[in-house]
Input
Amino acid sequence: MRKLKTSEIQRLSIEEFKNSRKIPLVVVLDNVRSLHNVGSVFRTADAFLTEKILLCGITGAPPNAEIHKSALGAEFSVDWQYFENTVDAIEMLKSQKFTVISIEQAAGSIPLTAFKAERGTKYAVVFGNEVKGVQQQAVTMSDICLEVPQFGTKHSLNVSVAAGIVIWEMFNLLNHL
Output
């Protein structure tokens, strides 16, 4: 076995990505502080054909050299939009008939592994601040709360790691409907 050279890996151009069929998933970043986390989410969203990212509150937005370091250009392929606050983003999504899912440990949250996606439904997943998580108002406005099951001594994951897990799982669920 040998590693493939970059030239051997069949990747879409930015134009091909923009014109490709996406999964019906929008990612919402609620006051994410770290520009590296933002860039990582862009890269994951690109990898799994996510429709769009909504950047809210203090979340940094492109163009930004720190985002670019971890996004590696995905900030050019993935559509994004900035909102001053997450509530406005969620209201817009609900007006467009998205099912809004906060990724948060909350009373009544469902383990990610138990979630069943429905054909014809558009989803938005909300990821929160590295310290405070998803703000309560966004949780209250959400249709569902999902949490990533964890079995160790820690009760949280880095936001970009959580996003990677959730976006991958949503890709698998939505791509097979």
Notes: The longest helix spans residues 159-175. The longest strand covers residues 23-30.
